[in-house]
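Q: Structure tokens for this one, please.
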Amino acid sequence: YFGMNSHVVSQYTETDGSEVFVDGDRTLRVDASGEISFSVSGNNGVLLNSNSAELTIVDCISSCYEIAKNSIGLSSGDGVVGLVNVIGASSSSCTISFGYFADGMPFTLPNGRYAASFEISGGAIVKAELYCRKYTLSGGSSLALPEKQVAAIAETKGGEPVLTYEDKNNSVGCTWIIN
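A: Here is the predicted structure, written as tokens:
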């Protein structure tokens, strides 16, 4: 996905156990917690494909979605990858982020992470972060605060209450967040 040549890539292991692959100015890092990061130090990003003469924001979203779906989405269990945020509506410079969902309900990941986030510059991916997670719905139930209490909290703090699955690294529970 990131245009690295496996025949010329150099590989090393960092002290924390992360595996790092370097091909020219492109670096791919895979750590033990399931985070994958890609970056380019020069202007040699991964060019995105377009169905027309000019790359559009829709092309950028579609290309990044395909990468997320066909990488972390293949091993996410009951979680599915979906678009959650686009910052900058230009195909020349934007950030596109995806989250995990199960039964239409979003997962809130630790430290405000996204399932996948792609930084686009000049029509190419110059930075990407993917967070590998696998979710299994147990079929049981999980208790969250009653809606009336959440509505009162949201009114006090300001914002919209959203019911989510909260990923705490070791466990997942149902909770409300205020957007």
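A few notes: DSSP finds two helices and twelve strands in the chain. The longest strand covers residues 80-90.
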